[in-house]
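Could someone model iron/sulfur cluster with this protein?
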Amino acid sequence: MNYQQSKSVAIVNPDTYGLSTQQKLWLGFGMIGLIMMLLAGFNVTIMNSSIYMVLAMTLISIGVIGYSRASYNHKKAGIKNDGVTFKSITSRGVLGWLTGIALTGFYIILYFYPTFLGLGTKGASNAGLVALFDPFSKWLNGNPASQWFVYGTLYTLAIIIFGLKFILKYRHDQYQKLRTISVMFFQLGFAFLIPELMSRLNSDTFKLPYVDLKSIWPLNYYNFDKYRVESLIDAGDIGLALLIFSVISIFIITPILTYKYGKRWYCSWVCGCGGLAETAGDPFRQLSDKRLSIWKIERWIIHSVVVFSVLMTTAVIHSYLGKDSSTYWLTKSVFLLGVGGLLTFIFAWVMIFKREALAKDAKYGAFGYFVVILALMGLFVFDQNDHLFFFKTSELRRTYGFLIGSVFSGVIGTGFYPILGSRVWCRFGCPMAAILGFQQRLFSRFRITTNGGQCISCGNCSTYCEMGIDVRSYAQKGENIVRSSCVGCGVCSAVCPRGVLKLENGSQEGRINPTEVLLGNDVDLIKLMNQQ
Amino acid sequence: MGHIVIVGNGISGVTAARHIRKLSNHRITIISGESDYFFSRTALMYVYMGHMSFENTQPYEPHFWTKNRIDLKKSWVNLIDHKDKKILLENGEIMAYDKLILATGSKPNKFGWPGQDLKGVQGLYTKQDLEQLEISVPNNKVCKRAVIIGGGLIGIELAEMLHSRNIPVTFLVRESSFWNSVLPDSESAVLNDHILSHGIDLRLSANLKEIHSNDQGAVKSIEIAETGEIIPCDFVGLTAGVLPQIELAKASGIATNQGILVNRFLETNIEDVYAIGDCAEQQDTLPHGRRSIEAVWYTGRMMGETVAQTISGHKIAYKPGHWFNSAKFFDIEYQTYGIVNNALNKPKSEMQMHWKHPEKNICITVSYDKNDKRFIGINTFGIRMRHEVFDRWLNEQRSIEFVLDHFVEAQFDPEFFHSYVNEIQLVFTTILSKSNL
Ligand SMILES: Cc1cc2nc3c(=O)[nH]c(=O)nc-3n(C[C@H](O)[C@H](O)[C@H](O)COP(=O)(O)OP(=O)(O)OC[C@H]3O[C@@H](n4cnc5c(N)ncnc54)[C@H](O)[C@@H]3O)c2cc1C
Ligand code: SF4
Ligand code: SF4
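Reply:
Sure, complex below.
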């Protein structure tokens, strides 16, 4: 090639960070689809509802996919963060706030006023948006749609189309591509199709509750509710198998996978909440707050949620167990002793073997442990069926469902994407993430290795960590990142311009490695300083 | 307990302060005229490109400094009175010190080009440069074309920055191939192609003759020395390397050459005055063939770590390990460990082997000594390598065969990335066995 003669071929886009004509076009398609959905909400449908629904969803999909292609296809594979801090929607500008308000509004309606979406109550048939999904729902599971069916469909669609966008954006990065495909697969298959098809099996004589096999307690805090356990048991072998599977998931599968790969196997490869955050929420990941003060708050909130969820579940199970061991071995007292024993065992094990690794976090652990134990003793001593101290168990369960299950995970967790970043729920509210994180910190092979002295403290890693981890503060010290909150998304490693970070599974030895003087300096000095 | 005053809040000054705090109870003051807080100079580009806010480039939160009792002062130091151990600040304030560390960094090179001080002409080094850039070249309506003079690491960053805002860029490079003053020719050629493929108008073997002005004293066009070609433009970026910032030291009677002269203990010719980082020039030879001035992040940090020991009562010489560095050229990541010379500087004894992916921008060069087959250095493009492993191999003086055999251990690419180890091993062992005949 003759270098002298080449002229610039920069594609001139007059609005530097505005949208190109193509992008506008695709955005238009998507918007029409969205508006069609909105109109359906107001009962305006002009054609057969199946066609209308398919048309709206197709337009939305075409819009998102076309928009992604227009954004990334003409560019070379590589990091695509140009203009993130300038665009209104990704920098808490007017568009960001408007999107946040719209999303929050949608969640409030969804959780608390589903009739506005057209849900038919007291036997009335559906109208509006929900009715739009009736044919699809009937086709899949034989029943009319509910607001949850609508939500589930849209949720799955979002993960798939924004997942495709994500894959295009990170097409140079094999790790990002694979985990996104995995998340799309689990959402479509496990969270959406399988449960719908399973409920097809239901008849008057056979009832199986909605089961998302990959949703594990305490994420599905309702898993051990009485109606659910009963219906599982009533469903015979399949039901029992599912019940046993859910217990095995908690106590065996989860710890083993987390030991081998860190909590990312769940949070970044399987989970639907994480899935939405990583796909639809990706443009907002940099909005997570990195301040030390917020990290402190994070730890209080998330550990309180864990305590709350353990207590609530224990109280719920306790409330429906019997007292007479001759009818069934698992009685109220056996159960409480079991839970108390298990917690004491974990607590003692950590305090004896992992005290050092835990360091400052010990007080949170101790606090949580004592709250739970005290509460268990309360249950035991007062031995009331349906009260935990002054709270009615069912009240407790309802409050949990309301505060954590709806407000936190939905309204704040997703509604506030454009304000607080994409993983607010995962970071502050998810009890599952907290438990996996606890194990990741203490008993896992996973860590993010830093590459000797190569870090230039630029801050890309910290900025793009959706969990608000100040990755740089470790990398610039040459210290591995072993944080309970890290979901192993791998984006810090992807955006690092100096190849400093690598997500790895390795031996426990040297996993946590604070260093004083970084590699590259005088070897004697390094030795001296790191001994001090 | 003494008062340690540090001039310059860049990586070298700040690292020194942090380590002095860890090792001693001295009072510490950092003075800089550039910014309130330490920020990462290397990240300036990302602010302009909209990847990060300026706050994101600050590695420590404000409370860090109070908690660690490191006083910060925003001011310029005008003069050092080393007889009375005092410094004079711009606002007239006088500050006494017990030990003074100069960490004043660099400034962009200017070669006295006609028109180099016109409006719309600037370098890229300071926070103020970034702010000025935002004013001069906010978008491609204000700036129809930008010209960048000087094909170094900052030049290519500036090209990428302007390109991210769709501003057409002409890139004037003095060398016959991009950065071949450092890289072997084959690698340099890969970068030429990559730069062009991004639509940058790369001009090789092209020197600036003159920058022309319009009636308002702003840049109108530039003229290329070799061809006489005139390129109309609204902005000129001067990125022809950096020079140590030595005015303060020079004016205060501290010995300087290109940089502030220091011995192996980072001491200047004046007692209790030290110099570290970009601004320092070593009088004596360093180990591992390291150069007397190295204007990179890591060197500043290492000097900071070292001088902190000396000041805290454990006198120790500056003894950097093996050279390493990294950079990113648009989408291509580059890492280097040990020594790989360019064509011009390559001694007869240095043998090089190259491998390049047939289509992708992935390539690698390893150097070894012809006589004893000792591995001496590696460059990689598009492949991440483990610093720790290469540092160890270099220390252990491993042979080239050993390095090839154990190549897998040095890989640092993210999980699931395709590994080219087998191809590389195959190609290189074939070359080696031929050269052994
Ligand atoms: C755009 C850019 C990109 C870079 N990228 C890389 C990279 O990728 N990798 C790499 O290794 N290196 C890189 N470098 C080089 C690296 O940033 C420098 O080597 C490093 O910052 C030097 O640190 P320092 O502490 O010695 O000096 P500086 O960071 O320059 O700090 C010196 C400070 O002292 C202040 N000062 C000077 N004189 C006075 C005075 N009289 N009174 C008060 N204050 C004063 C200055 O204002 C400045 O704030 C890059 C540099 C630039 C400009
Ligand atoms: S530390 Fe890295 S891998 Fe972990 S959550 Fe943050 S960005 Fe993802
Ligand atoms: S992105 Fe990489 S170089 Fe930048 S601060 Fe993080 S680890 Fe360091």
